[in-house]
Backbone:
């Protein structure tokens, strides 16, 4: 069974940067799209970004121009570079593997999440 593990979360001031990583174990990334979602307390899970195995990329409107997704299939790792962070970016960030989509239901494997907190 595939296992996804996120890391890199933490506390950062508004305007700062963080880089999240997601390592995929027990299965190759080949053929899968890898996405990032986030969820703030009391809110629904929100699409952040996704990258297909052939190079297509999609971003959520709230992070366009600030976040960058990338993947290193040789290392079975997906990254999310987050710049110009805002307090509204606070939440638990989840890595997911599945189809190239902005809908969480199109992803079949999920990590446990890493917490990102942006202070004002």
Residues:
């Amino acid at each position: 069974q595939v296992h996804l593990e996120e890391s890199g979360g933490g506390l950062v001031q508004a305007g700062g940067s963080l880089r999240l990583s997601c390592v995929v174990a027990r299965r190759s990334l080949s053929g899968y799209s890898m996405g990032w979602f986030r969820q703030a307390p009391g809110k629904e899970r929100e699409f952040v970004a996704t990258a297909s195995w052939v190079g297509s990329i999609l971003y959520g409107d709230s992070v366009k121009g600030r976040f960058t997704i990338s993947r290193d299939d040789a290392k079975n790792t997906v990254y999310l570079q987050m710049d110009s962070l805002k307090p509204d970016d606070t939440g638990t960030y989840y890595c997911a593997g599945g189809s190239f989509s902005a809908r969480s239901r199109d992803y079949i494997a999920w990590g446990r999440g890493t917490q990102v907190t942006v202070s004002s």
Q: What stands out?
A: The chain is about 0% helix and 50% strand.
